[in-house]
Amino acid sequence: MALSNQTHIQRNRLLEELRRRPLTTFEARTLLDIPHPAGRVKELREHHRIITCWVTEQGHRIARYVLLAGDKA
């Protein structure tokens, strides 16, 4: 069963997973079926504090997103 790719649903999936753990770009694409994770993170940052840590995975420099406690005021 394919997951919905409407942007608001992608944002919700991403936020729920970030509440559980940090998430890399690869994980967001493969596990959550989000083709453009950076775009969804940018949108989420309007209301949530999310930082980007750069990691090397499978020989590539990729983003790992971390949701910080508390929403933006």
Structure description:
With 73 residues, this protein is of the alpha+beta class. It has helices spanning 7-20, 25-31, 37-44, and strands spanning 23-24, 48-57, 60-71. The protein is globular and about 35 Å long. It starts with 6 loop residues before the first helix and ends with a strand.
Shape: globular
| Total beta strands | 3
Helix content: 25-40%
**Integer-rounded radius of gyration:** 12 Å
Strand order of the largest sheet: 1-3-2
Q: Based on the structure, what is the oligomeric state of the protein chains? A: single chain
The overall pLDDT, averaged over residues, is 91
Structural class: alpha+beta
Cα distance spanning the termini: 37 Å
H/I helix tally: 3
Report the biggest beta sheet as strand number plus sense, adding barrel if it closes: 3 strands, antiparallel
Reading the helices and strands in chain order gives HEHHEE
Uncertain residue ranges? none
Percentage beta strand: 25-35%
Layout of helices and strands, plus pairs?
Blueprint: H1 7-20, E1 23-24, H2 25-31, H3 37-44, E2 48-57, E3 60-71
Antiparallel strand pairs: 1-3, 2-3
Helix pairs in contact: 1-3
Features:
73 residues, 3 helices, single chain, alpha+beta, three-stranded antiparallel β-sheet
Short description:
This protein is α+β, with helices and mostly antiparallel strands and 73 residues long. The chain contains 3 helices and 3 strands; from the N terminus they run αβααββ.
